Amino acid sequence: MANFPIVSTGEHVTRQVLSDSPELMVVAFRFDAEGAEGALHRHPHVQSTYVESGRYRFFLGDEVREVGPGDSFVIPSGVEHGCLCLEPGKLIDCFTPRRDDFL
What does each C-alpha distance from 62 to 17, 32, 77, 82 come to in angstroms? Predict the structure, then answer.
């Protein structure tokens, strides 16, 4: 099992790859403060997000949804998305294929 570094992705936001293979990657994103943002972006990977803890407002294309512990959803390839942290916590994201830019 590899040990991946914790990387800052913005103010009060970090990510850490938990595991990966060419076909799949699991990544933890920690939001340490209310108001921290996951910037709007898009990528060719299909993404599944599981809310381990905290509360978030997600922007998924034209849709806005609030999610909390135990919620999960899938973001299709190419859809612009991002989030605003409403209560500090952690998201677990899975990407297929692997996000080579995270390595």
Answer: 28, 27, 15, 12
Domain with 32 in it: 23-95
The rounded distance, in Å, linking the Cα atoms of 34 and 17 is: 23
Q: Which residues have a Cβ under 8 Å from the Cβ of 100 and sit 6 or more positions away?
A: none
Q: How far from each other are the two terminal CA atoms of the chain, in whole angstroms?
A: 15
Query: Comparing C-alpha atoms, which of 12, 15, 17 is closest to residue 1?
Result: 17
Cα distances (Å, whole numbers) of residue 20 to 9, 13, 46, 87, 103? 19, 21, 15, 28, 9
Asked whether residue 96 carries a pLDDT value surpassing 70, the answer given is yes
Mean pLDDT of the chain: 97
**pTM for the complete prediction?**
0.95
Residue 50 is given by DSSP the state E
Structure tokens at 99: 């996000």
The CATH number given to whatever domain includes residue 43 is: 2.60.120.10
